[in-house]
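As a warm-up, study this chain.
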Amino acid sequence: MHIDIVTIHPGLFAGAFEHSILKRAVQANLVSINLINLRDYATDKHRSVDDYQYGGGAGMVMMIEPLVLCLEDLQQKRKYDEVIYLTPDGELFNQSMANQLSLKSNLILFCGHYKGIDERFRQHFITKEISIGDYVLSGGEPAAVVVCDAAIRLIPGVINDETSALSDSFQDDLISPPVYSRPADFRGMKVPDVLLSGHEQNITAWRYEQAVNRTKKRRPDLLNS
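Now compare it with the structure written out below.
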């Protein structure tokens, strides 16, 4: 998979892809991530990418020209499966979407700032708009990291134990069951006997029951979807 991330603050990604699972994915050549500074496509000496909005109102808007110039330049190098814009009013990101994106070969993510990007760019060039929650961030960079992390970890070979990703929360519209590790008895707090039994069928049944009960309690909306 190849991911291009267009941003006006490349420094915000410092370290994001240099640790843990994402670092291993890059080192194993399972994914390549390229940061593009949108200001490189500005057409004035000040490298401006924003201007006042038509009709008045507070806040600046990212201009259409540098956005289009950037996209057209990058499209000469590869064909994108999705042109993604990170925005609070986009489709709410979930595990199902992460699964779909993990199957793509080429993605480009545009990180918004200010009051957002020119609507014409959204209408004519963006193929998918994503929100990571009902709140507003200072920019789309944190959201881009979230989307990349969720999708990349699902690529075969990224996680050593690939079955681990398949049992994550939300994969089956359920929250993951409780997990325990050593010691089995810590200050009187004990691991459930079934997990120590070695009976795989009983353990699977227990985990499913726990997942359903936890989902009913914490995220009943998932069961009604």
